[in-house]
Design brief:
There is one protein chain. The protein is of the alpha+beta class. The protein has a single domain, classed as Alpha-Beta Plaits. Helix content is 41%, strand content 23%. It has four helices and four strands; from the N terminus they run αβαββααβ. A four-stranded antiparallel β-sheet has the order 2-3-1-4. The radius of gyration is 21 Å and the shape is elongated. It starts with 6 loop residues before the first helix and ends in a 10-residue tail after the last strand.
Length: 133
Amino acid sequence: MEAGLTGQHYGSKAVHCYKETLSLLKILIMHFIYVLGLTGPYNDAANWDEEADKILSLHWNYLVDLHKKGIMQVVGRTNYEPGHPGLMGIAIFKAETEAAATEIMNNDPCVKYGVMTAKVHPFNLALMQGMPA
């Protein structure tokens, strides 16, 4: 057999090519995270009214819509009540640029209407189900 065509050599080339492809994909598909926190008045559960509940519903629908479009990857929140200092929400998503990521965050109804504050950060996905270790 010619040099370079053995199964072992071919396998190492395939692994190298796979790793290069993953590196390129990480560059092409940028991930971001935005961290959400309640604004002052909404840290008190007594201040949650019908209007705030409607905004929260719009927020949820916005995130679901982005998830259906393949943009939003992970959404969740810590399991604390309003007023707890550890209460926060996170959204991990794909965007082409930081400016695009900021636009996605700013269009979140809870951010837009002042129920929550948010800060966007570039984010590297290191390990998740379906992603090789």
